[in-house]
């Protein structure tokens, strides 16, 4: 059984614990916002696969629902496909990928909106809720990245990537930055989910401390280092009031002092 700290020492540990806890929570919130933005970019940008500098490849690039080709007359790329109309998406694999990436981005938007719930709900519940959504977002993004190459056997992909393109075969095309961003997002969302569950568990211990007023070494998770002398609060000194017996001795001492001074004056 862990020994309990005295209240003054516990306040010092609690202050240090809360300072580092808030720093980690703010970092988690910032990373959640950043990944939400990157998730939306990976969903919208048609830069998952595309042409390479190799002269044998076609010209253009594709995303989860859009495919773009250059228009020489207008000197820009013309894109087709919309996530609001699944009939414009090339095949079922790309439709499934669009669904999973879109839902993943939507879940991260909900997580960012849930940051406002810290002002009106218990922080432990908000962390658990956000962690669950981030974990589901990571799973959906993983499914999208696995399913996407199964749609590379479409005629439009063959036109862009050559006859060597097929299911899970890219042919003469190359993987572009949006696909790489989506793959990295799987690990990012998973790490954020684990961190959210960690913060929820630590927040529960903080609430226990606030209710009990005492804290153990295990509750502080290692924040039991030796407190320096400067950090120890100064305890008030108790001044003892002399009792009746002390008053008698004080009177006797005063009488002898006056008598000694009188003798010295007489000798002079």
TrEMBL record:
<feature type="compositionally biased region" description="Basic and acidic residues">
    <location>
        <begin position="246"/>
        <end position="255"/>
    </location>
</feature>
<feature type="transmembrane region" description="Helical">
    <location>
        <begin position="21"/>
        <end position="44"/>
    </location>
</feature>
<keyword id="KW-0472">Membrane</keyword>
<keyword id="KW-1133">Transmembrane helix</keyword>
<feature type="region of interest" description="Disordered">
    <location>
        <begin position="246"/>
        <end position="268"/>
    </location>
</feature>
<dbReference type="Pfam" id="PF10242">
    <property type="entry name" value="L_HMGIC_fpl"/>
</dbReference>
<dbReference type="GO" id="GO:0016020">
    <property type="term" value="C:membrane"/>
</dbReference>
<keyword id="KW-0812">Transmembrane</keyword>
<feature type="transmembrane region" description="Helical">
    <location>
        <begin position="99"/>
        <end position="119"/>
    </location>
</feature>
<feature type="transmembrane region" description="Helical">
    <location>
        <begin position="126"/>
        <end position="149"/>
    </location>
</feature>
<feature type="transmembrane region" description="Helical">
    <location>
        <begin position="177"/>
        <end position="200"/>
    </location>
</feature>
<dbReference type="InterPro" id="IPR019372">
    <property type="entry name" value="LHFPL"/>
</dbReference>
<protein>
    <recommendedName>
        <fullName>LHFPL tetraspan subfamily member 3 protein</fullName>
    </recommendedName>
</protein>
């Amino acid at each position: 059984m862990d020994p309990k700290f005295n209240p003054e020492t516990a306040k010092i540990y609690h202050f240090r614990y809360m300072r580092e806890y808030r720093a980690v929570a703010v970092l988690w919130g910032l990373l959640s916002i950043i990944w939400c933005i990157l998730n939306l970019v990976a969903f919208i940008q048609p830069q998952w696969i595309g042409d390479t500098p190799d002269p044998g490849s076609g010209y253009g690039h594709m995303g989860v629902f859009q495919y773009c080709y250059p228009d020489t007359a207008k000197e820009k790329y013309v894109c087709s496909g919309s996530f609001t109309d699944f009939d414009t998406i090339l095949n079922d694999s790309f439709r499934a990928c669009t669904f999973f990436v879109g839902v993943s981005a939507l879940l991260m938007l909900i997580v960012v909106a849930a940051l406002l719930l810290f002002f009106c709900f218990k922080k432990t519940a908000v962390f658990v809720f956000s962690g669950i959504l981030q974990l589901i977002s990571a799973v959906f993004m993983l499914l999208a990245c696995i399913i996407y190459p199964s749609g590379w056997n479409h005629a439009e992909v063959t036109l862009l990537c050559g006859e060597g393109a097929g299911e899970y075969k890219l042919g003469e095309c190359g993987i572009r930055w949006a696909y790489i961003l989506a793959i990295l997002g799987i690990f990012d969302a998973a790490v954020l989910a684990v961190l959210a569950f960690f913060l929820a568990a630590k927040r529960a211990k903080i609430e226990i401390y606030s209710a009990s007023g005492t804290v153990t070494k295990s509750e502080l998770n290692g924040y039991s280092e030796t407190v320096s002398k400067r950090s120890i609060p100064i305890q008030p000194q108790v001044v003892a009031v002399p009792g009746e017996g002390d008053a008698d001795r004080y009177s006797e001492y005063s009488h002898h002092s006056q008598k000694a001074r009188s003798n010295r004056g007489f000798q002079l």
